[in-house]
Amino acid sequence: MERNLAIHYGGLTELADAVKMLVNEGVEIEEGAISSRLSRAMPDPDLLLRTGGQMHVSKFGLGQVACGELDVTETFSGDFTRAQLSRAVVDSQKRHRGFGGIGEAPHQVDPGVLASALPAP
């Protein structure tokens, strides 16, 4: 297992730098080319832990976290325990990961229940 801390990191800056490299190289701008020019200091994360109850990714690895699992906890990072990490990893392993593919969703939502939760037009 590998743990990475991203401090004062800008995912948008990293994406912009990757596109600038492609333009300078005269290479076609497409997904694979951009991805190969993103920071390779770390592999794409399988799990992103968001502490302190924050419900956003804060520009973290915008090109890398697309297929990763997100776990949000109210616990602040300094108070996060090994037991909480273990729970987050086990929970993420139980989830269905389609990696952007089309297929049956693991949890079906009753459309009637969903429609009743939406405001009337």
- What is the N-to-C succession of helices and strands? HHEEHH
Please mark out the parts with pLDDT under 50 across 5 or more consecutive residues, or reply none: 105-118
Rg, nearest Å:
18 Å
- Report the CATH superfamily: Decaprenyl diphosphate synthase-like
CATH class: Alpha Beta
Helical content class: 25-40%
What's the structural domain tally? 1
Describe the structure in your own words.
The chain has 121 residues and is mostly helical. The protein has a single domain (11-95), classed as Decaprenyl diphosphate synthase-like (Undecaprenyl pyrophosphate synthetase, 3-Layer(aba) Sandwich), CATH 3.40.1180. It contains four helices and two strands, in the order ααββαα. It has helices at residues 11-25, 31-36, 82-94, 111-117; strands at 47-50, 69-72. The longest helix is centred in the first third of the chain and has 15 residues, at 11-25. The protein starts with 10 loop residues before the first helix and ends with a helix.
Put the structure in a nutshell.
This protein has 121 residues and is mainly α.
Question: Which descriptors apply to this entry?
Answer:
7% strand, Undecaprenyl pyrophosphate synthetase, 121 residues, two-stranded parallel sheet, elongated, 4 helices, mainly alpha
Please outline the helices and strands.
Elements: H1 11-25, H2 31-36, E1 47-50, E2 69-72, H3 82-94, H4 111-117
Parallel strand pairs: 1-2
